[in-house]
Structures are given as structure tokens and as C-alpha cells.
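Hi L., both proteins are below.
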Amino acid sequence: MSVLAIVPARSGSKSVPDKNVASFRGKPLLVHSVVHGLAARNVDRLLVSTDSPRYRDIALAAGAEAPFLRPAALAGDLSTDVEVFTHALGWLEHHEGYRPDVCVHLRPTSPTRRVQDVENAIELLLSDPTADSVRSVTLAAQTPYKMWRLGEDGTLLPLLRTGPLEAYNMPRQSLPPVYVQNASVDVVRSSVILERGSMSGSRILPYVMDSFGDVDDWRELALLERDVPEGGVPRGLTFAFDLDGVLASLVPDGEYGRAEPLAAGVALARRLHEAGNRIVVYTARGSATGRDWLEVTRAQLLRWGVPHDALHFGKPAADYYVDDRMISLATLESWIEPGGQSRRKSA
């Protein structure tokens, strides 16, 4: 079975100009997908389909094939994947007499996918002759069983008509799991593309991944580069931990001496500190009343075993804090597995 990987990289992105060659960890974005495809043991050929001579030069320098420039008509905002793949397969068959059995779709916007995920998705399709394609998916953060659409008469109608009766009134935990495609790796038989005009066909196998991170704008690209370190736990960074509600339990009437440690926050602060990061604890204790909580807080941090390089008072009491570097404890935990490896594999 011949396997061809294609990296589509048009030059006309509106959200991020020249997104597909934007720098990510010192390399143009599309180069990461080229590297993934070339490293996969079950990929026979890899080519980049682009409309840009500059992108083509970048692809060639990275070791990809780029035997043609894609027509401008197939590089617009509304151009579809099936058009791009049909063009590439048609060009190869016409000029080389080459037609692969399987095509792998590697989007440049997933620079942190694992080579193993590419290989596994291919093997999954090859192991089932009845399957048309494999699509990588992630467990959806929101369930469509609790989503609605507006009827013509202005009433609410459930988005899904299938599933449990009145699913929208049921606890989320009791509803069927739902998955969303994460754009990391898709594998499809060439015959499905050329003979049915489809990138998926009718029998699609899931390749389930545990993360989602498609890059669509500058903010996503910056967050991905800053927050997904190579090798797992970040090192050499400064993490500012709020005290109450993150490291300590919230208490009524500001009686902070009654606070108890929050195990998840304390454990995460310890792991980050042990990995070589700087931990700063900051708090609004006493800012509204003028009471001095310094000694009580120091004793609590010592007793709870919270590592910290600095303790800052003077944070103003407020209902909401707006911060361009804000990250929730849950999100930070989701990036780091107990074994010290980042959970996020895609993007």
C-alpha cells in the first residue's frame, strides 16, 4: 500500500498573514508538518501543495517534494480540502503515472502533533479494508445535547433529536460522550477522494486524541509556543499563584486563619518549583480592611509545604481580575501529566 502525505499551505490567510510560514520554535509552521510526515515510518512520499514560490522554497529546503504550484483558484478562503487533494492527485497521475493508495492530510496548523499519532492513524486505516478514512478527534468540551437552535416561531428547539429523552435536562455526566475533529491528522483512501469527491467517505474510523489545538490566529500561535514546552513540564519560568481560592480554601468574612490548603494547587506549585520554576504567591488579604495577615500567611505556607520564592501583599480586592497572562489552575493541570509529560499533543 502506497501512502502519500500532503501538507496544504496556501499563502492567503486573513487571520494571520502568512500564517503557514509563521515562526514556531524557530521554524516556519509548515516545516513542522513536513518533519512529522518525513519521520513517519509508514509514509512513502510527502509533498507540499502551495500557491507561493516562497513557501515552495521553504518546503523544498525542509526535505519535502513540491513539484507544482497550486492554481490561485484553489488557494482562496473558500477552497476546499477535496479540491486541493484532487488537484494534487491528478497532477501526480498525469505527470508521473503515480497514484497512492492512501493520502494523509497534515495541516500546518498542528505543529505539535506526534509522529506516533501519524503512524497510528495510518495503521488504523490499513488494518480495516472496509474503512474509507480515519479522522483524529478529541472529546468535546461542551455537549451538543444541551445546545439549542431557534425555531421559525421563536421557540427553542434542541439541536439534537436523537439520544436520551429530554437529554437537555439530564446531568452532563450521564449523557453520551461526543467528539470533535481536532484537525491534527486525517487519513483517507485515494479512491474516496477521486471517485466519490469526498475527504472522508461513509465509513470513518476515529483516532481519539486527548487534546485540541488548531492554530487560527496570532493569540493561539503565541499561547501554543509559550505554553506547550518541548518535553513536558515547563522550566525556568515564573508562575504567580493567587492564594485564596487557588492554594487556600475560601473562608467567610475574611477570617483567613481558618483557611485550609487546596491539595491540587499546592501539588502543582510543588511540581513546577521542583522543575526549576520560580513561584510567586500574591494575595489581597487585608487590602479591604487594613488588617495585617503577613505572619499568619507565612505560617500557613510553611505548614502546608507551599514552595515560593516571593510572597506579595497589596493585590486590590476586586470582583474580577483582568490579566493578559492569566491561566486557570485547571488549564495548567491539563497541560502536565503526573509523569511530567505534556498532555497536549495537537495544535
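That was the first. Here is the second:
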Amino acid sequence: MVFARSKEKVNGKTVVAAIYRGSSSVVDFISDAKSQLDQIRDPEAFGGFYNAGVNSTNELRAYIKGLGLKKEETILFITGHSYGAVVASLVGIMSTDLAERNSIFCYTFATPNYNRLGMTGEGMKMFTFDSSEDLVPQVPVGPNMDKTGTPVRYDRVDMKLNRPEQYERFLKLYQYFRDNKDYDSDSDFMQEEYSYKPAIRIPVKNTIIRNHMPYTYMAFFLSELPDEEAYACLAERA
């Protein structure tokens, strides 16, 4: 996780950002899978993702306390990808003692389903972004498994067929984030690869994993911005 605060105040408040990364190793994937299985087996258990949310909220609470910020002085901006998206979502709905509900903003990407144990993000600005070609946001499936926030879904095939201009921009951004590698060689851009029907063979390495990667979501998100704003983001990154 990474915490940061704004140097300048926004509407008289200090913005505190909390960013949670997704899985990056085999050990992480095993841990994630165990968390999901634990909650499927016992939806009422306070374990798995929930414990990660509690621990991460406590870390954020300690950070804000160290800054000396009061609840009414704080705006929270929380984001994460994949496993980090679940953690970010839970931190958001557990942080009502750190900021007013209307001052909590949570944007998550490729968020797996999880058990909220009755907690809600009511009154908060919470959005969850996912790609229809990404399997991760569709699992795990079980009692009480869902997400918190307004869903925003991207469909790369629909973009390719019905919004060719945006699709072209997406490809350029995707190519940029992949260090300008030739996207023509990537099988996940071939329309016939997009079916998850059992009768269709899907190259896991080339399709499922790439559909889930952070740079795919970054390209989706930026492709919706006006040209000058999207490419300004790239200029800042460079």
C-alpha cells in the first residue's frame, strides 16, 4: 500500500490518498485464492478479505492520526486493482470515522466479488470498473458475494465494433503502457478469442491474464478522456 497527502487543500480539506496494489507473485495468488475459498465456505467468517480490510484500515487510521487530521478536515481518495481493489473497497466502507461519507471517494479496478458482511458504501462516491473480458471480477460466486459501488463495465469487442475511434485510442494507450510492444502479435485482440464458452480454447497467458492487467484498465480509462487530457496524463508519466 501507499499513502500520501495533498500539499494544497481542496475546499478547505486535506486529501489523503490510499493505493493498494494487486497480486504480483505466485504466493500472492495462492493467498488470494485461499481468501476467496474461505469466504465461500463460510460467508459469515471474519477472515480472508475482511481481515485484510481491517488491517489496512488500521494502517490508514494510524497514518491520518500521525498527520493530526480531524474527520471534518479530511477527504479520502482510495483506489486499488484486483486483490487491492477488494482491500480498497473494504477500507472505504470501514473509514467513516476518518472522513465524512460524502468526502470518501473510492475507485476500484477489476474487483473480485467479496462478502461485505452487511456493510455498505451508502453516501460515498464509490465506483468499480471492470472489463467484460476479465474473469477476475466475476468470481468468487457464492452466498452474499458481490461488490460495493456503482459498476462501470468496459467491453473491448463492443468498442471495436461500435466505437472504432475510441478503440483506436485504446490501442495506442495500451501499446504505450506495454512499452510500445507490437499489439498485433497479441492474441487477446483477436475477436474470436473473446468467448469463454467451454468449446472455445482460450490461451490463458495471452488472453485472460492480459485482460486483467492494470495497463489494460489504464488504457480503457484514459481512452474515454478528451485527447488533450489523456495525453497530458502520459506526458506527466514520462
